[in-house]
Amino acid sequence: MPKDMTAPSTDIFERRESAARSYCRGMPATFATARGSQVFDAEGRSWIDFLAGCSSLNYGHNDPDMKEALIAHISGDGIAHGLDLHTDAKAAFLAAFERHILEPRDMDHRVMFTGPTGANAVEAAMKLARKATGRTNIIAFTNGFHGVTAGALAATGNGYHRGGAGMALQGVTRMPYDGYFGGHADTADFLEVMLKDKSGGIDAPAAILLETVQGEGGLNAARPEWVQRVAKLAKAHGALLIIDDIQAGCGRCGSFFSFEEMGVTPDIVTMAKSLSGFGLPMAMVLVRPEHDLFGPAEHNGTFRGNTHAFVTARVAIEKFWADDGFQKDLADKAALIHDRLADLAAMVPEGRIKGRGLMQGVDVGSGDLAGDICARAYDMGLVIETSGNEDQVVKVLAPLTTSQEVLRKGFEILLKAADEALAGTTKMAAE
Amino acid sequence: MPKDMTAPSTDIFERRESAARSYCRGMPATFATARGSQVFDAEGRSWIDFLAGCSSLNYGHNDPDMKEALIAHISGDGIAHGLDLHTDAKAAFLAAFERHILEPRDMDHRVMFTGPTGANAVEAAMKLARKATGRTNIIAFTNGFHGVTAGALAATGNGYHRGGAGMALQGVTRMPYDGYFGGHADTADFLEVMLKDKSGGIDAPAAILLETVQGEGGLNAARPEWVQRVAKLAKAHGALLIIDDIQAGCGRCGSFFSFEEMGVTPDIVTMAKSLSGFGLPMAMVLVRPEHDLFGPAEHNGTFRGNTHAFVTARVAIEKFWADDGFQKDLADKAALIHDRLADLAAMVPEGRIKGRGLMQGVDVGSGDLAGDICARAYDMGLVIETSGNEDQVVKVLAPLTTSQEVLRKGFEILLKAADEALAGTTKMAAE
Amino acid sequence: MPKDMTAPSTDIFERRESAARSYCRGMPATFATARGSQVFDAEGRSWIDFLAGCSSLNYGHNDPDMKEALIAHISGDGIAHGLDLHTDAKAAFLAAFERHILEPRDMDHRVMFTGPTGANAVEAAMKLARKATGRTNIIAFTNGFHGVTAGALAATGNGYHRGGAGMALQGVTRMPYDGYFGGHADTADFLEVMLKDKSGGIDAPAAILLETVQGEGGLNAARPEWVQRVAKLAKAHGALLIIDDIQAGCGRCGSFFSFEEMGVTPDIVTMAKSLSGFGLPMAMVLVRPEHDLFGPAEHNGTFRGNTHAFVTARVAIEKFWADDGFQKDLADKAALIHDRLADLAAMVPEGRIKGRGLMQGVDVGSGDLAGDICARAYDMGLVIETSGNEDQVVKVLAPLTTSQEVLRKGFEILLKAADEALAGTTKMAAE
Amino acid sequence: MPKDMTAPSTDIFERRESAARSYCRGMPATFATARGSQVFDAEGRSWIDFLAGCSSLNYGHNDPDMKEALIAHISGDGIAHGLDLHTDAKAAFLAAFERHILEPRDMDHRVMFTGPTGANAVEAAMKLARKATGRTNIIAFTNGFHGVTAGALAATGNGYHRGGAGMALQGVTRMPYDGYFGGHADTADFLEVMLKDKSGGIDAPAAILLETVQGEGGLNAARPEWVQRVAKLAKAHGALLIIDDIQAGCGRCGSFFSFEEMGVTPDIVTMAKSLSGFGLPMAMVLVRPEHDLFGPAEHNGTFRGNTHAFVTARVAIEKFWADDGFQKDLADKAALIHDRLADLAAMVPEGRIKGRGLMQGVDVGSGDLAGDICARAYDMGLVIETSGNEDQVVKVLAPLTTSQEVLRKGFEILLKAADEALAGTTKMAAE
Fold first, then answer.
1. CB contact under 8 A, B12 and A98
2. Which of D:277-316 have CB within 8 Å of C?
3. In this complex, is the C-beta atom of B429 within 8 Å of any C-beta atom belonging to chain A?
4. Min CA distance, B157 vs chain D (Å)?
5. Which chains touch A (3 or more CB pairs under 8 A)?
């Protein structure tokens, strides 16, 4: 280890890192190591992690089995970078994914490895749908988040991110997500009426693109029956159904895919984040054979197929998804999370629990309050973040492998932070 | 290692991997390990590597120092995924990059870590230029390659890739690259005339985006004076100069940046491929402070900042760029490569050497011939690929660390392959 | 008159006119003369006109006063084509328009003469709103019709017309018009929610563009309170309110502008169709002084300012709008039309009266039936057309000057045609 | 004539006409009448007209035969507005156009009447080409002018007009017009190279759109061999050739179409301006039968088919194009114009004659000088305007019917104005 690593100063970040840096502003520690659900900074201070790399670390930090396999691979001079050549590591991942994920779910999808980011998977999916249908228009939803490269950003609802484009984005029609207008109306009705109307002004869609739970959008969870209706509308109008399972997939909602129990078979699924299991960059697109229409390298990218990630991703699949033990365990944790969040929601006037599975949180009504709670939690040893169009949702994205004990500890901190934040709010209001 | 990895069959690729897979079609081995400039398949067959992950492995496979540092990091439960939080690994990389790369070159650029693909870096650069100038139009060049996500693809010239978009791309004006019309005309003249013309129909550009050597485009190398003129035109017209150094940077052209000796200071530089040194996904945008205008997370991405890559990238910088030894060595190798390619060019009617530094090749006049040469080379133990708008250029992208001995061996195979291919062509022509 | 005009054959249309011709397919007569509310073919057959050039002949055919003024102008070698130079005819029109239209309504709008088509006025209005706000997005509504040139077509809802573009259209977000989802929901609520939502994915609008009655869209009439809310939303979000009064203006809804009694002041109004009074091509954009931002000729066009049209348009303003007599008369006729359409609606199962003023019709539930009724009416001497997304609305657009007697005659034919068509339908259903 | 027309004040224009008004700023008279090549203001002052409504009055003002036919039509209650119904006037125009224009030139084109502006014809042509080919991209040229509605504006080169869009325009690739880089290079070579290049980044074009003489662009006249090569390139690449003959057609270049003697048959021709003969709004698209692909009303517009214009357009065709007398006369006048312009060019350092036929002018090297000359000419009784990307070309667009005597008088004024302007310039330079 070189000398200048022993006492890293944050000056270098101020001096040289772009103003686009973000999380480090609210959580300014310099992190050094991490195990399971805990992270440590260089001075040995520790935090419980209820953020999990925004759901990229569903199996926790440095899972020992993945770690062992990865070190073995590197030690043995395993391929690190293999373009899209055949490698033993890729074959092993594919075999495990087929055996434990695709076959048990009767999915005949092909696996397309894209550049290892969620945005890239979404871009590939959107392009594929347009190529397959000869249509341009893709329907996406309010509060959806699909990435910030130009194609994906057109589908992303967030105005701050959209503004970063510096230009008008194209090719996407926005429709209201499930529950968008409260209980008054089923937004699938609107979608149906507008698609059927010959003068509705919505061009025939290449695809309908959705998250079953909108992570960045505020933990909005679509009802299964809404997803089913949207799936039927897609089919009826010759559009592909793309489910973006980047944040909600890999067990986050309680099953491997977020849509498993909804009775729909997406034409295309995008995956990234926790796919590698270890937090390594990896992304892929699952596509039904009849839509697997890109020619060789028509959509390409130097890092499509990250070999290190294949190694850990294979272990993740084999360790957690070869039988139903893990999934059962998730149900218990989801219940615990829901209970504790109910406590939090009860503390806040009009607090509302949102999301499902291990992707839940509480809408506390204002971004200021949610931010205050998270800032106080960080000071007390809990890494946690907000989401939502006003950053008004305190979002729990703990590793799925977090023990009930650590979950409880984390919630203790969270509730204390909320208590203090609310007291502060009350105090301020009183002054 | 699980049982099903011992004898990986390629059936799984046929059965489950998308038709978009590409390199594996011409090089069907299942690769397993690699060291330096050699790759090995599971049965122990070996190849000299003149492709180097399309210039992503400039320091060879599994460099022992990077490998050691990476294993130490993983073994010690170093952070694997850290979003854009401060980590010791990131600090160390930034410090090394500042000390050995930016400061000696008087570059005051800030470093923006984007999603770890070249395309993402290009997308960020294009967005930034648009945001900074309030303009939409970006000038890109014939035969440029900048990635296949929607924003970057608009700047990419390749029609096959563009066709994959399934829609009209926008925001880019195409201009002829240096030498595009042969010796008859300086294309910078055209650019100047069209930009100056109030009715030229070229909207005021946010940026001019170029590679100093077009790797995918056929190893077209721009003259320094052309790049200088383009830089001046950019400045005169209020546009940013973006140099895409994803393939040509990291020493590939003989110096760390491809533009170092050209007397230009780009406003923005995009980097990826060999940046991590080890073939791990990593990308970044260098941007002058006055244009570092994204707000926090305005351009974001889960994998921005790949911590494993920071570890190996730091070693790469410190090992190869702390003094000028490596760079001097590159000059010798570039000369050797040029000599051997001259032999190849001499074998082919109208064969032409293209490119510069360690990014050279021979235009053999037809894609069929170039493909035949590469296929024969593969069969004889050399991994090498074509590039160019007709795939007519045999392209040598050996690791920069390849010894002169291995370079010579590789060229022996290449020349033999060319000899046989030409004999076959002649034979066919004679029949 | 040349010899070949004496007995014009329709062969020439078959042989030489484009397949894009339309009305002549269902109404194949060769028309020759017209007076008031009657048209005549070359053989002397006559029709009552309930189409009025799609509301371009609100004052009937060949109004004697306009005719006299126009002949005087031509006879005296008055300017026929004057670009946008000052002419006495333009001055006189402007003076009359200011005195009788703008001043009494407290409108400080400037008058911009565009190319003499409604589409051109809409294009100018959209460009102006974008220039004024620096934003691209324009909100338009389901079933809106604003023209078929690329900018206006983006705002037009009709899928058949949109398909004619041969490309994806851009710059417009579609929202549901008043009453679009029936009684269940106020669509202004949706607009409000989506505009307010920072992640709603609707970019900040340059303008909201609407017709108060959608003529082509099926005579959908917006409620005044809906228009008021939309106007407030526009203001609150920094968008201009553009009212497209091309079909609904010039008295068609009972007052000069369709929005007069709604309590809104549009930032921009587009006018065409009946503006010249005589059916001559003329269009203009009314724009509040603070948004009158085009530089000289920034939006131009050879035929902006049709001098012959200025002559007749002045007469139309002075004859019909100098006092309130005409407007009072319109109220009586609107009542008569409503009564007769009630009779028609009653004949049809689920028949519904639509529209308002002298822009009413009946939704007969199917395009086939509506088409059948109009075809039979034509055969019996009444020119009338359908509108709506399924062509399901029989639309009455009689000249506003049609006498009550002629209106009654026209309705006699219409009701008889409906009776026969329904009998035919019943008969077919019975068979 | 109403009282307030007797002494029209220009106050009304200041008060109520949009800032977009343009020609009236430099020529502030209020014009009232016009005959042949002369225009008169209300006070009886007269000007010779070398502008001719920007080539909309090729047969002069108020041609007596057209005038007589138009008055007869109006007096007899001829149809004024007929949508796209069959009318006797349309039949007569089509018959005359077929007999005297299309048949003698072996043109099998169909006639599509669009909204009566050149922009609308161009929009229709572009849409048609896209629909016919299934491609989006249209190639247009530097300094081309095709109108300012969004589709046409994308093809227009002028930056001032483009800026009026308030948004990025799309669907057009810009290429250099003939002679754009001076004598150094044939720009058709560039077009060929870029179209052939699979990585040239120019998407396969739906059409190539050009003017044979660029009127607004500065009287740039393409060589016939260049137009022929472009026509061949269009064909070779599956693109339609669209010739925009709006300004250069109707005899302006010496023959009815500007391309007649070039040996090319455009797939589509756009016409407007002088088509009606009388300065009335009229436009049309000529399209070869195999590309006549719009369905009924797919491209529509209320004023498609201006009946008054049909009446005068028929007379224009029969009077001027039934035999070759007029065309022969044009050749003489073109020679006279060329001679006089040679005198003007000789007065100006580096003055250059531009254009051809009766569409010629002199590039005087600066917009200031050209503007000064035209302003002085106006004061001396000559209406004349500039064109070009710097407004540096003094452009003569006299009615084709102007007698040699009047032409000479006009040139006397023009040369005197130039003399004074140059003296002024010299004087200023001397001071």
1. yes
2. 278-281, 285, 287, 292-303, 306-308, 314
3. no
4. 4
5. B, C, D
Cα angle A59, A64, A70 (rounded to 5 degrees) comes to 95
Domain boundaries defined on chain D = 24-55+324-430, 65-320
| D 93-112 near B (Cβ less than 8 A) | none
Please tell me the distance in Å from C166's CA to the nearest CA on chain A: 11
- Closest chain D residue to A134 measured between Cα atoms? D134
H helix intervals, A141-222: 150-155, 159-163, 187-196
Residue A183 banded pLDDT, cuts 50, 70, 90: confident
Contact A201 C137 (CB under 8 A): no
- ipTM of the predicted structure? 0.96
For D28, left (φ over 0), alpha (ψ -120 to 50), or beta? Answer: alpha
Say whether residue C17 is in contact with chain D using an 8 A CB cutoff: yes
Block means of pLDDT (10 residues each) for chain D, length 431 residues? Answer: 50 96 95 98 95 98 98 98 96 98 98 98 98 98 98 98 96 97 87 97 98 97 98 98 98 98 96 98 98 97 96 98 97 98 96 98 97 98 97 98 98 98 74 55
In the chain, the amino acid numbered A332 is D
Q: How far apart are CA B45 and CA D156, in angstroms?
A: 61
D404-430 vs D325-347: helix crossing angle, rounded to 10: 20
Yes or no: domain D24-55+324-430 corresponds to CATH 3.40.50.300? no
Residue C50: what residue type? F
Q: Closest Cα partner for A294 from B165, C151, B219?
A: B165
Contacts of D207 in chain C (CB under 8 A): none
Say if residues C81 and C116 touch (Cβ distance below 8 Å): no
How close D313 gets to chain B, by Cα (Å)?
Answer: 33
- Pairwise CA distance, residues D24 & D13, whole Å: 10
Closest CA relative to residue C351, chosen from C341, C334, C365, C332 = C365
CA distance C232 to chain D (A): 24
Q: Does domain C65-320 have CATH number 3.40.640.10?
A: yes
C227 pLDDT above the threshold of 50: yes
Angle between helical axes of B307-320 and B64-75 (0-180°, round to 10): 150
Chain C with chain D: Cβ pairs closer than 8 A: 433
For chain B, give the mean pLDDT: 95
Q: Do domains A24-55+324-430 and A65-320 have the same CATH topology?
A: no
Q: What is the pLDDT of residues A342-366, one digit of tens each?
A: 999 999 999 999 999 999 999 999 9
Q: Decide: residue B390, CB within 10 A, 0-12 exposed, 13-18 middle, 19+ buried.
A: middle
Is residue B19 within 8 Å of residue A296, measured between CB atoms?
yes
How many CB atoms lie under 10 A from the CB of residue C155?
29
Cα–Cα distance, A157 to A241 (Å, whole number)? 18
Neighbouring CB atoms inside 10 A of C133's CB total: 19
Write the residue in D2, D92, D120 that is nearest to C5 by C-beta.
Answer: D92
Task: Read off the tokens for B155.
Answer: 């700047």
- For helices C224-236 and C187-196, what crossing angle results, to 10°? 10
pTM here is 0.96
Residue C162 has, within 13 A of its CA and on its CB side, a CA count of 25
Maximum separation of any 2 CA atoms in chain A, in Å: 69
Question: Residues near A86 by Cβ (< 8 Å), separated by ≥ 6?
Answer: B8, B10, B13, B24, B28, B29, B30, B31
Query: pLDDT at position C417, please?
Result: 98
Three-class secondary structure of residue D418 per DSSP: helix
Give the gap in angstroms from C-alpha D160 to the nearest C-alpha of chain B: 8
What gap in Å lies between CA B29 and CA B45, rounded to an integer? 9
pLDDT band, residue B428 (cuts 50/70/90): low
